[in-house]
């Protein structure tokens, strides 16, 4: 029975992995034939014929944010949100339902899901994981409804708007709810199965023989509180960095940057950078290590009953990856900014060969 369950989980995980890799390959080839900015004759490099409605196709309209969005959100939850809106006509008919109201609703779902995550029953914790996926789907739905009503195509961040701030606050509250729930679970299940036996045990100190004996615990750095605080800090830094690079790359590649060069030359340079292997590599790295991806990994650890292992890994290993990714992204953005806006630099490209790295 256990062997059959393990095989089923392995097959399911492999199927999702295969799907995500396949979609990434399709996205890569789509980017190589895509003009991130409209060309002067209002035509793309070659027409793209989507087999389904473009709103339901995650690779139809390519944007900076779409390229850096985590795999479950980009390839599963976002198309499901678009399909729901298409079938129910939320954007067109449900005028009483605002995107901000949807944002607030997924905070409620997150709180309910967090309550289940604190339970000792693995089944209940898995119910909590499902509820957090519903929360993520609602997060996609509010963005889709907002963009549809504003006639904005593709995934984009409207940095500085009220909706952007509300969505960010609601995402933060959902993350806090999950983090607190994991902390409560670890506190309640110290020294139990599933790897939690490596949590510290409260023991009598060597001074217990004296009249003024005290109770101390194993080193604080191994305590649930410290590890959860470090993991929460990592989530926070990841969110700030990810949103920063979405914002600066959107401004650089998807807007009319003030410059001394002609508009046609600007569009050509933006397209070259967008199609370059260096930008693709950075975007893919953020796709794997962004804030929502960290939440996905945490939920997967809860589902597999390996919470403590993930908590320790998240703050011991992943910060190194985060700081390295920030360093590379900052260097690439600075270099790209100068390349795009340089008056004397001539960027040349053909349909299949790019001079930009």
TrEMBL record:
GO terms for molecular function: phosphotransferase activity, for other substituted phosphate groups. InterPro entries: CDP-OH_P_trans (IPR000462), CDP-OH_PTrfase_TM_dom (IPR043130). The chain crosses the membrane at residues 12-31, 96-117, 162-186, 225-242, 272-293, 313-333. The keyword Thylakoid does not apply. GO terms for cellular component: membrane. One of its GO terms (biological process) is phospholipid biosynthetic process. This is Ceramide phosphoethanolamine synthase-like. The lineage of its organism: Eukaryota, Metazoa, Ecdysozoa, Arthropoda, Hexapoda. The gene is LOC112466630.
């Amino acid at each position: 029975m256990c062997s059959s369950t393990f095989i089923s989980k392995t097959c399911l995980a492999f199927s999702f992995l295969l799907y995500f890799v396949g979609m990434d390959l399709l996205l890569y080839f789509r980017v190589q034939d895509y003009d991130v900015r409209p060309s002067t004759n209002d035509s793309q490099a070659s027409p793209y014929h989507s087999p389904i409605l473009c709103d339901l196709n995650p690779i139809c309209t390519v944007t900076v944010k779409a390229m850096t969005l985590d795999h479950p959100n980009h390839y599963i939850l976002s198309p499901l949100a678009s399909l729901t809106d298409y079938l129910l006509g939320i954007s067109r008919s449900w005028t009483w339902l605002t995107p901000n109201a949807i944002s607030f609703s997924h905070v409620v779902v997150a709180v309910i899901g967090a309550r289940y995550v604190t339970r000792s029953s693995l089944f209940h914790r898995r119910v909590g994981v499902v509820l957090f996926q519903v929360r993520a789907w609602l997060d996609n739905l509010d963005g889709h409804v907002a963009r549809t009503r504003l006639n904005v195509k593709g995934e984009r961040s409207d940095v500085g708007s009220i909706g952007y701030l509300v969505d960010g606050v609601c995402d933060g509250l959902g993350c806090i709810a999950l983090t607190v729930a994991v902390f409560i679970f670890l506190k309640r299940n110290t020294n139990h199965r599933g790897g939690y036996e490596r949590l510290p045990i409260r023991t009598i100190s060597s001074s217990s023989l004296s009249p003024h004996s005290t109770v101390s615990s194993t080193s604080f750095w191994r305590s649930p509180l410290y590890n959860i605080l470090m993991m929460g800090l990592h989530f926070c830094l990841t969110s700030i960095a990810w949103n920063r690079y979405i914002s600066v790359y959107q401004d650089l590649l998807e807007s009319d940057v003030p410059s001394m060069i002609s508009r046609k030359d600007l569009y050509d340079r933006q397209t070259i950078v967008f199609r370059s292997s260096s930008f693709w590599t950075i975007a893919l790295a953020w796709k794997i290590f962004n804030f929502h991806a960290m939440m996905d990994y945490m939920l997967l650890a809860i589902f597999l009953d390996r919470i403590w292992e993930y908590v320790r890994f998240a703050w011991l290993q992943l910060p190194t990856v985060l700081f390295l990714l920030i360093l590379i992204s900052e260097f690439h953005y600075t270099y790209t900014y100068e390349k795009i806006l340089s008056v004397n630099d001539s960027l040349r490209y053909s349909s299949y060969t790019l001079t930009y790295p």
